[in-house]
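Re: [help] complex structure
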Amino acid sequence: MFSFTKEQKVFDISGIKIGGQPGKYPTILIGGLFFKGEPDFNLAKNQIQKMYDLSKKTGNQSIPDFFVKKEEFIEDIVNFIEKTIPKNQPFSIDIIDANLKIKILEALHEKKLLSRTIYNSIHVGTTDEERKALKKFKPEAAILVAFNPKDKSPDGKIEVLANGANLLDKGLLDIAKEIGIKKILVDTAAMAPGDNSGASISAIPVIKEEYGLPVGCAIHNVVEKSNWLDKFKDSRKPVDAASNINIPLFGGDFAIFGSMHNSGLVFPMIAWEDILVSEYVESYFGIEPCDFHPRRKLF
Amino acid sequence: MKKGVTTTVIGSYPIEINNAELMDEYFNQKEVSWNGYIESVVNDMIHAGIQLVSDGQTRDPFVNIFCRKLGGCRIRERAEIIDKIQYVEPITIDDQKFVRQIIPEKRQNLGILTGPYTLSQSCVDLFYHDEKEIAFDFAKALKEEAKSLQKHVDMISIDEPFFSVSMPDYAKELIKTVISEVKCTTRLHVCGDVSTIIPEILESPVDILSHEFKASPKIFDAFEEHSFSQRICLGSVRSDSPNIESVDEIKKHIIRGIDVFGDKISQISPDCGLRLLPRDVAFQKLKNLVKAGEEIYG
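Output below.
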């Protein structure tokens, strides 16, 4: 368990507190919707409500992460966000295609939703056009994916944040700052099994100590691609959920835990781990948990 | 080409990296492969007619290629030394194996090592506080790479551009350390104006000396004052200018080289790595170099 010498930033994103020394604030849980493309809004509404209920019970604040796979879904998804996500709650948009990202920024701007938007994500593939659009339609926060195709070690991840690893004209941090994004979250870029996948976890304390920013990742992706788990079919879901425990254990601030459908498994596990971390860091480093920490709510 | 003169390159070659494609591989959890980039530059060299080709050093700038994989080094804003420099894994071997797989039978491949002095001068030292010790630890690490590399290449070139800035009195020992167990042909490439350090360079225990004769023709005059045993790699097109030298201009330059060096010229090449030039310019420079070489040497 860790405490960092570097001052740790805590961002308030529409009421969500993210960052800080381990044990202070509970792990933020980011649950995904619409992975398969076609949105099922009724199902999504129920899943979001269930996730928010779990947040209330455990103290682990949560953020819905909306996948948008086609342009034709943008309008409906943005309308859904406007109607369904409470005005005091943030959300993130998770899109791979740069052109779609630009289009949704404009749509979010028109609906005045950018002040609650977490842009997922800025990375080495972010285009110049995307950067221009981000300057024009500035989201409240952005996730930087520290994927360095040249070096998947923690040092490689720092390199792409610091100087772009000679793949970009500048580092991802400078790109975000140039755009004017003040609330920067770092995703340590979980790799496929066998491709230095553990580095996404070991990079968490390294990046927090270097920059003092909130750090997390989607470590569950490694489980999803662990084909050997097919031999243990009953275990796949629990292992997927349990993988997220690595994040608070290594001092991380947020877990992008995959489908929101898995909230019921993930939230109690993370709450349990947050309590464990909090107990230790309070007794050793004197860091007291915040008022809504699972240790206050549940224990 | 007759008379044992080979067309070759110094090392780097321009390439455009497709970042969006790399991110797609990440999002789809696929392992990133650099082979497409290497194949692309090797194809350019082959199509231009170059006989001894490199891997193009497409992965990184030439210091980072080595510092990324050597123990004790890390890359931040610049390469940094944070612990004892050690050889922990092959650095360029896999790429050279791949090059050898894809080149036609009669073409050869060139292994490239960034020299120990250049590495020592290019890194931020947060550990040693002793310039000479750093250089020798780099040399020992590079010796391990060279030992393995020679099995997969036809020649090894050591690039030491920093010799032209400040040549240390232990330069010869450094080079000797790197190649002490190398049996293939070796080349020392020092770009920049080396006209004032020719005697020191001539002490280098390598087979071939390579310099920027095109950008710094006064090097011809400096060499004329000395006798030496090494052969010459004649830099014949500029790597710092996008102007494409005509075949006639290159021929004149080579003829001047023959006047000075005679049959000591064993290679003709660009002055230095071409990575900073537009790709079409780099390709045309290589084509003209090959054509000029063919017209002179047959």
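Chain B has one domain: 6-59+95-114+155-297.
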